[in-house]
Automatic annotation (TrEMBL), chain A:
PANTHER family: GLUTAMATE SYNTHASE 1 [NADH], CHLOROPLASTIC-LIKE. It catalyses: 2 reduced [adrenodoxin] + NADP(+) + H(+) = 2 oxidized [adrenodoxin] + NADPH. FAD binds at residues 32, 61, 97, 390, 397-399. The keyword GTP-binding does not apply. It comes from Amborella trichopoda. Its EC number is 1.18.1.6. It is an enzyme of class 1 (oxidoreductase). NADP(+) binds at residues 169-172, 213-214, 225, 397. Belongs to the ferredoxin--NADP reductase type 1 family. This is NADPH:adrenodoxin oxidoreductase, mitochondrial.
Automatic annotation (TrEMBL), chain B:
GO terms for molecular function: 2 iron, 2 sulfur cluster binding; electron transfer activity; metal ion binding. InterPro entries: 2Fe-2S_ferredoxin-like_sf (IPR036010), 2Fe-2S_ferredoxin-type (IPR001041), Adrenodoxin-like (IPR001055), Adrenodoxin_Fe-S_BS (IPR018298), Beta-grasp_dom_sf (IPR012675). PROSITE patterns: 2FE2S_FER_2, ADX. It comes from Amborella trichopoda. It comes from the Eukaryota. This is 2Fe-2S ferredoxin-type domain-containing protein. Residues 27-130 form the 2Fe-2S ferredoxin-type domain.
Length: 486, 143
């Protein structure tokens, strides 16, 4: 909309540093939340910004998702932690959207609310037997070995079987396979949760199948992780030569994507490497392509999985998109296993009062601006409400993807501020942080400040020193809160 | 003014050495941001471009602080001659470049480009990330 220069001056005045603070709340303290906070504080000197997170610990999946043997990937928390030095920033841990404070309450007390709470649930297959014991979502297993307080008791049974099937071939699937097959001694000096290390030491798992619906050309993992798993000591990696055959469409796909080319090249090398290359292989990793799960079956124990029924697939092009999908062939086979991990994607959870697209599992939005009416026509922007990260884009990408995602959302907020799209909402006096403190006090909620988190951080690091670990994670809600409130 | 030891190339080197920063073991590096704004800095031989950027308040991200575990310090070498003077990227750097936004034929990680005399005058563009974060045809990156 075209603004007269007087209007532009007026809105710039509203947003200038001298007069009113702009109160912003970011819900979720993972990479999306922190990058958004950093960019908002930098772009707008009048902003006072709070990150709220339901956990007592910040950093989201950097803490609870990145594998313990990938410490360099976690270094980004140093950058996020520097935000705490900014007087215009506060962290509120142990504050949950929905229970501690509602979305409408946040919209009342803040001028701008950015939802960055990610995807804390799982896609499901919807096939028979999915509820049998021994079947876990990747997220649960990863949270378990990373010491997430929600998954301390997940305790997968690693002693009752020698075979695990991982459905999916993305980097999370590779993480799971690597953690299962790695010599536990290699994990002793990482920040893996102690209960997981103890369990892995007694594990009887010797064989892992990584099962994908499509072929090596479409494998979702990336070169670094693949290279890593191929160089595991005492692990023999297997792939069927026949699976490596490429169709013309496959060749086209490879031409378009550098990532896929390099992954395919690495997978091809597996087929040509001889067993004698490895000195003594006690463990096996099998890449299984063109198979999709049809059902899970029990054996003697009716409640526990012992077989996965797989349907062979072939690839078919989606219209003229160049993208190929897996189609069932009607031929089936079975794989015996006592443990299954579904690594088929995370899923976001809806919240009361928030427009949500159930099918895509995201909040309908236009470059981060939340759309009412689930994005269907006619739809309007919900003024002052934005999304960033997985909740905005779906659960894909790396940590850095959120950097650019945050840039886009902050860009939309800035545009809206400059063009008066948030008026008159923005000119209202709002209590911001004081309002949140008030609500939390009324409900007797003891939030965890960044300084409180630093007490947890220090204890974990000190406990870790006793075991040559970078940290010994505290994995129970009670203990986390106890240390935070000391 | 030139000293003919080892031919014209060496002559240029020695010639420059008597004036300018090569005498102080520093090279000139220009960063160009996504809006086209330029900043020229002096970088000591042996320092990485990432470190140099941070010392000069240039907005180059470095999530993993130079440990080859991310692609946020991605820079585009604007002059192919300078690009060719760099050592080939290792597998590890290429693995990270795979994931870089706005990857080009002359892209490198800033933490792996180390200042040396042959790079004097190098121009590095910071990728316009949002340009590649297109809604249409956007291919989600793996994780």
């Amino acid at each position: 909309m075209a603004l007269s220069s007087l209007q532009k001056w007026f809105f710039r005045g509203i947003c200038s540093a001298s007069s009113k603070p702009l109160h912003v709340c970011v819900v979720g303290g993972g990479p999306a939340g922190f990058y958004t906070a950093e960019k908002m504080l930098k772009a707008h000197k009048e902003v006072q910004l709070d990150i709220i997170d339901r956990l007592p610990t910040p950093f989201g999946l950097v803490r609870s998702g990145v594998a313990p043997d990938h410490p360099e990937t976690k270094i980004v928390v140093n950058q996020f932690s520097r935000l705490a030095e900014n007087e215009r920033f506060s962290f509120f841990g142990n504050v949950s959207l929905g229970t501690s404070v509602s979305l409408s309450e946040l919209c009342d007390i803040y001028h701008v609310v950015v939802l960055a709470y990610g995807a804390e649930s799982d896609r499901i297959l919807g096939i028979p037997g999915e509820d049998l014991n021994g079947i876990h979502s990747a997220r649960e297993f990863v949270w378990w070995y990373n010491g997430h307080p929600d998954c301390k008791c997940v305790a997968p049974e690693l002693k009752t079987t020698d075979t695990a099937v991982v459905l999916g071939q993305g980097n999370v699937a590779l993480d799971i396979a690597r953690i299962l097959l790695q010599d536990p001694a290699e994990l002793e000096r990482t920040d893996i949760a102690e209960h997981a290390l103890a369990s892995l030491r007694e594990s009887s798992i010797r064989k892992v199948y990584l099962v994908g619906r499509r072929g090596p050309v479409q494998a979702a993992c990336t070169a670094k992780e693949l290279r890593e798993i191929l160089s595991l000591k005492h692990v023999q990696v297997h792939i069927q030569e026949a699976d490596l055959v490429k169709s013309p469409l496959d060749e086209e796909e490879l031409k378009r994507s550098r990532i896929q080319r390099r992954v395919y090249d690495l997978l091809s090398k597996i087929a040509s490497s001889q067993p004698s290359d490895h000195v003594s292989c006690e463990r096996d990793l099998h890449f299984v392509f063109f198979r999709r799960p049809a059902s899970f079956l029990p054996c003697n124990d009716a409640n526990k999985v012992c077989r996965v029924r797989l349907e062979k697939t072939f690839l078919k092009e989606n219209g003229a998109t160049g993208r190929q999908s897996a189609v069932g062939s009607g031929e089936f086979e079975e794989l015996e296993c006592g443990l299954v991990f579904k690594s088929i994607g995370y899923k976001s959870l809806p919240v009361d009062g928030l427009p949500f697209n159930d099918q895509k599992g995201i909040v309908p939005n236009d470059r981060g601006r939340v759309l009412s009416n689930a994005g269907k026509e006619p739809s309007n922007f919900v003024p002052g409400l934005y999304v960033v990260g997985w909740l905005k884009r779906g659960p894909t990408g790396i940590i850095a993807t959120n950097l650019y995602c945050a840039e886009e959302t902050v860009g939309s907020i800035t545009e809206d501020l400059q063009q008066g799209a948030l008026h008159p909402h923005i000119s209202l006096d709002k209590p911001g942080r004081d309002g949140l403190l008030h609500i939390l006090q009324d409900k007797n909620i003891r939030f965890v400040s960044f300084k409180d988190w630093e007490k947890i951080n220090t204890k974990e690091i000190n406990d870790g020193k006793l075991k040559s670990k970078p940290r010994e994670k505290i994995t129970s809600w009670e203990e986390l809160q106890e240390i935070a409130t000391q | 003014m030139s000293v003919f030891i080892g031919g014209p190339k060496a002559a240029c080197y020695f010639g420059k050495n008597l004036f300018g920063d090569l005498e102080h073991n520093r090279i000139s590096v220009t960063f160009v941001d996504k809006d086209g704004n330029e900043k020229e800095i002096k970088v000591p031989i042996g320092m990485s471009m990432l470190e140099a950027a941070h010392e000069n308040d240039i907005d180059l991200e470095g999530a993993c602080e130079g440990s080859l575990a991310c692609s946020t310090c991605h820079v585009i070498v604007m002059d192919v001659d300078h690009y060719n003077k760099l050592e080939d990227p290792t597998d590890e750097e290429n693995d990270m470049l795979d994931l870089a936004f706005g990857l080009t034929e002359t892209s490198r990680l800033g933490c792996q480009v180390i200042a040396k005399p042959e790079l004097d005058g190098i121009r590095l563009a910071l990728p316009a990330a949002t340009r590649n974060f297109a809604v249409d045809g956007y291919v989600p990156k793996p994780h």
